[in-house]
């Protein structure tokens, strides 16, 4: 239970799709002019991530990982189909998006009308493929956790696009320098929001020495600091 | 240039500045920014996109009369995914460390909007040679931004370029560090990439007033 909660909050705030790893930036910038459309796209992203991440987890577990083909028989245990993962993941995503579109259109026309136009757009949204690839590279252990990861990183993306859309609606009344208007200021605001989100970094690792490193970028920074500290330590040693 | 007519040259030079895929068309930001903390990673990412977009544009342009328009997205995705697998395997074979740093971002070239955008907007309606030039031009425009961002982040963040210290040694206090300069560790944080791109847009649009949005 505790690991579910931990993954949930970590994927929403610390490893936020937009602010920590810049995924789905294209649609994030293009569809964030109005809050209403942003909500529609955000909901569609949660929906599709919740379906594709667990599905790709099953694919990864039973087809792609080294030795995953064991269930076929002992002679298949040595196969490693890992190099096929990109093509499998993207094919799953593209077909699932199409399938979801058809099913939603049939059973819930009202939901289709609100999500409809965004669904095809989502097949090429980096956040969706990124969700599956991060699920693979972080070696998420169980189906439940993969489902959790899909939903929570979707919620993180939803929050981000909702916030930027609200800010962009307000900023129209501000005196922004002309060359910075539109795209430029959106980039800078997103950067500032990202800095704000960095402060969530201490939420899970605070006081816990053995906590695993979080995102790749921050991990790199941590490594860098450690290197500095080591150098400093060596330095003080040599002074001694 | 004897090989290229004036129109062809324009296909390459336009995306470098006034029609840049990142700062003007707003495409391909997704996989670009997270890896620009080091110049080397930015350069490799630029080359990878150059390869994928150049070859992919030619393939799509050759297939353009055969692809039924209803399933074109899937066909495009398969072409890109195959090319990206080639890049990924080559990197894993010859530059394993770098492929670890780039991690999932190589895979994310598949959903890089520049690639799908150029397929849709150009390769589906033009011949292979033109599409090739368009692909090269756009990938170069993308690489230029990546390299500028990578240059500033690595220089100001860790005082190195391509991993070689250029500003002196921060521990021994040589070079600029002797007059009290400090590395700005903040530049290595992901959000700074966004702010630097924002500033590039600012500079570009103040130089060319036609690009200003209202």
Describe the structure.
The complex is a heterodimer of chains A (240) and B (214). Chain A has eleven helices and no strands. The radius of gyration of chain A is 21 Å and the shape is globular. By secondary structure, chain A is mainly α. Helix content of chain A is 70%, strand content 0%. Residues 206-229 and 231-240 of chain A have low confidence and may be disordered. In chain A, helix 1 (2-14) runs parallel beside helix 8 (143-171), helix 4 crosses helix 5 (109-115) and helix 7 packs antiparallel against helix 8 (143-171). The mean pLDDT of chain B is 80. Chain B has eight helices and two strands; from the N terminus they run αααααααββα. The radius of gyration of chain B is 19 Å and the shape is globular. Chain B has one domain. A two-stranded antiparallel ribbon of chain B has the order 1-2. Chain B is mainly α and 214 residues long. The chains are: A mainly alpha (240), B mainly alpha (214). Chains A and B meet through helix 2, helix 4, helix 7, helix 9 and helix 11 of A and helix 3 and helix 8 of B.
Helix content of chain A: over 70%
> What share of residues are in beta strands of chain B?
under 5%
Structural class of chain A: mainly alpha
Number of domains of chain B: 1
- Poorly predicted ranges of chain B (pLDDT <50, ≥5 residues)? none
- Total DSSP E strands of chain A: 0
Radius of gyration of chain A: 21 Å
Structural class of chain B: mainly alpha
Count of helices of chain A?
11
How many strands, what sense, and barrel or not for the largest sheet of chain B?
2 strands, antiparallel
Shape of chain B: globular
Helix content of chain B: 55-70%
Task: Provide mean pLDDT of chain B, rounded.
Answer: 80
Shape of chain A: globular
Oligomeric state, counting identical vs distinct chains: heterodimer
State the helix count of chain B: 8
Biggest sheet of chain A, in brief?
Answer: none
